[in-house]
Structures are given as structure tokens and as C-alpha cells.
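Board work, copied verbatim: YchF/TatD family DNA exonuclease
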Amino acid sequence: MLIDTHTHLDSHKFDDDRESVIERALAEGVEKLINIGFNRETIPTTIALAERYPFIYAAVGWHPVDSIDMKPEDLEWIASLLDHPKVVAIGEIGLDYHWDTSPKDVQQHVFRQQIALAKTKRKPIVIHNRDAHEDVVRILREEGASEVGGVMHCYSGSWETAKQCLDMNFYISFGGPLTFLNARVPKEVMAKVPLDRLLIETDAPYLAPHPHRGKRNESAFVRLVANTMADILGKSVEEIGRITTENAMKCFGIT
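↓ predict structure ↓
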């Protein structure tokens, strides 16, 4: 049993074969998926997927790249959706200093607002962090995010940063980049994360694992991430599946 803890099956890149993509995931033993809605367009399509398929759950939030576009009514909308029975987290939220689309101060304000909302609604948070490790950790600490914890999505930082996140009640999730042949640091960091804090994901359709690197990713490929994790840790794929599934169900409150 596997859980893809971060996917975007509502992406337009799946419009021609979404059903087949979902069937392939199920055939590979992916029994649950968490789809991420992150802006005005993808939140409704994420909710629609979760309502259509019993094994798909939803996370909803406002992506840092789109922070400049978020209005007060959008935050109220997200707050109302957090009461939906299939919505298990708020995300993906955080900071992205790579793409120059939203000013840093705006990103940080929107990030803080959503952490506060997560605490009010008692929902874990899914963190997007690109080139902003120091500020992400600082804001998580200042806002008391350890009260709800959550996931460091597609983790790419150092072990020192990972330790700080672990101390704040966060799980560390690895995706396709873990499988890349030159991924020395992610492999070293992953090997140090306690087993009860490890998660796996795809971020499909992005960041396809080896040997599909550069192509469209899909949830079935989460097994390739599990294979790499198993090889590094000297465990069976079945054991990695069991461990990461138990962790995901605990993190997101899925029964």
C-alpha cells in the first residue's frame, strides 16, 4: 500500500487521460492520494476530484507565487473549505524566492495568515519552500506552527534545516528528485530522518523520478520513490510502503 501525499491530478496536463493515470496509480498499489489545490483555479477542481473518488483527499491553500493575487475573501473561502470532510490539510503554502511574481513581504504576510488559519481549524499544513529555507523556518517558529505540524513538501534542504522542521512537528516528504542519479544531498538527508517522519510523494505532473526525468510525472511513479528509499535504508519496498502510509494517515488524520 502506498500513499502519494502530494499530487496535482487536476492539472490540464492530465486532461486527455486522467482516468488512465488514476488507474495506473491504483495498479501500482497507490491506494490513497492527496491532491493539492493552491489558487483560485485549482481549489475547485481539487475539491471536485476528492468528491468524485473515495480514495482521493484534498489540501487547499494559497501558493506563495500567487500571494499577490490573494484577497480577504479568498482566505475566507479557504477557511470554509477546511470544514469539508475530504479536506485534510491547508496547502500548499509557504515561500518561493525563485520566481519573482510576488514580493517577499506579501508572501510572508499570506503565509502567516494561513498558518493562523490552520491553527484555528486544527489542520496540518503543507509547506512549499523554494530558496527560502531561513525565512520559512523562522516564520513557522514565530507563528507557532508546531501546534498543527504538517509536511515539508518535496524536501530539498539541508539536514540542519530538516532537524529544525522535525522539532516543530513536521514530516519530511521526498519525491522524484530523491531518485536522481546526482541527488547526493537529498539521499544523505533522507537517511537521517526518523522512520516515523518520512513521507513519499510525486508532485505530479512535475519532477518525474528517474528514469522518467524531464517527462510528465504521474502518481504511479511514487513507487519509484519508494524503491529508492528502500534501497538507501536497506528495507523492502513493502516495509517502506507500510511505514510511509502509516505516517501519512497519522499526519493527515485519515482513517
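The chain has a mean pLDDT of 97.
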